[in-house]
Amino acid sequence: MKKLKSILGTLAPTLGAALGGPIGGQAGQILSSVLGVANNPKSIEQAMQNLTAEQMVELKKAEKGFEVQMKELDVDVFKLEVADGQDARSKFSKDWTARIMGIAVVGGFMGYIFLVTLQPPEQNSEALINLVLGYLGGLASAVISFYFGASNTKDK
Questions:
Q1: Residue 129 and residue 12: Cα distance in Å, rounded?
Q2: Strands (DSSP E) found in the chain
Q3: Mean pLDDT value across residues 47-55
């Protein structure tokens, strides 16, 4: 689903944002009808990877129609997406499973940097180090954003 949302983010951002939220079913139905495939994420994702020029035009038209429909209903798709992330933070920031995983990820990231720094340069594979650092850095960034993001506030 995440891959599908990233593909749609550039071509049809409103439909992409709607996919993971409460109106995702409607967005999926629009996408499946435009692409001529079954209404499930796997079929839609495969069709999105093999888009024709005609389908791109139809997808843009469907995007505009969806935006008009959402404005008529006074629904802000992007606000719904942000609210979903804030809801997850409020539910899981106090959960010990999330805390332990977060500590492990950040600790692993720092530990890996420490180990790479201690080893002589000729023993390190630069490509592997860059790959692992990029992956661990992304995970550490997500953990830090989850706990210290702009929308994270103290309990009232």
A1: 36
A2: none
A3: 81
Q: How is 79-91 classified by DSSP, letter by letter?
A: HHHHHHHHHHHHH
CA gap 105, 107 in Å, rounded: 5
Q: Are 62 and 15 in contact (CB under 8 A)?
A: yes
| pLDDT-above-90 percentage for the chain | 0
Q: Measure CA 151 to chain center.
A: 17
pLDDT tens readout for residues 52-101: 888 888 888 888 887 777 676 666 665 655 555 666 666 776 778 878 88
Q: State residue 95 phi and psi, 5-degree precision.
A: -75, 130
CA 118 to chain centre: 35
Q: Give the pLDDT of residue 2.
A: 56
Q: Are 70 and 14 in contact (CB under 8 A)?
A: yes
Quickly list DSSP for 89-115: HHHHTT-HHHHHHHHHHHHHHHHHHHH
Q: Is the pLDDT of residue 49 over 70?
A: yes
- The answer to whether 12 touches 70, Cβ cutoff 8 Å, is no
Report the alpha-carbon distance of residue 140 to residue 133 in Å, rounded. 10
Structure tokens, 72: 């008529």
